[in-house]
């Protein structure tokens, strides 16, 4: 329980900062959307609520794209409880199978330019990404992570406060994908407060 509860969200937040640092156009769009929300809240005096979070469509896109490109859990091991045939291949009872999430997320037949950080792709994808077998950062089916919405909310709140209060410069770093996804140098950044 420690890994899903304590490691995955900070890693996802770090990766979002990495991808946004490398894509100033996406960062500018994210800042614009979140600053507009902050202005509306300051003018109205209302508190933030669930509908505010859901209305940040580009922020949702950034979160989905971050999770697609750098799924924190690369895959899961399963044991076949009986003989299973999938697309003409037999998996005998008792065999172990590794379901690779990242292989699906980087499949060119599913995602155009899969190695490119493109939050706008989620505007072009029909239907809910969370119900698709092609987007599984939180697993799926009966084993769908119960923390899915809470996790995405945590990332959204972090990004909102980061881009509306601070600016940053990230040092060069690279993503390591095995055994889990992380930054090689932990993404050193220099942070400054944005003048009000």
Shape: elongated
Distance between the termini: 40 Å
Listing every helix as H and every strand as E from the N terminus to the C terminus, the arrangement reads: HHHHEEEEHHHEEEE
**What's the mean pLDDT score?**
90
Keywords: Heme, Iron, Membrane, Metal-binding, Monooxygenase, Oxidoreductase, Transmembrane, Transmembrane helix
Pfam family, one: p450
Family: Belongs to the cytochrome P450 family.
Protein name: 3-epi-6-deoxocathasterone 23-monooxygenase-like
Structure characterization notes:
This protein has helices at residues 2-21, 24-44, 50-55, 57-69, 101-105, 121-124, 148-165, and strands at 75-79, 84-86, 89-91, 96-100, 166-170, 175-176, 182-183, 189-193. The protein is α+β, with helices and mostly antiparallel strands and 196 residues long. It has a single domain, classed as Cytochrome p450 (Orthogonal Bundle). The strands form four sheets. The protein has a two-stranded antiparallel sheet with strand order 1-4. Strand 2 and strand 3 form a beta hairpin. The N and C termini lie far apart (40 Å). The model has no long low-confidence stretch (mean pLDDT 90). Pfam families: p450. InterPro entries: Cyt_P450, Cyt_P450_B, Cyt_P450_CS, Cyt_P450_sf.
Q: How is this fold's topology laid out?
A:
Blueprint: H1 2-21, H2 24-44, H3 50-55, H4 57-69, E1 75-79, E2 84-86, E3 89-91, E4 96-100, H5 101-105, H6 121-124, H7 148-165, E5 166-170, E6 175-176, E7 182-183, E8 189-193
Antiparallel strand pairs: 1-4, 2-3, 5-8, 6-7
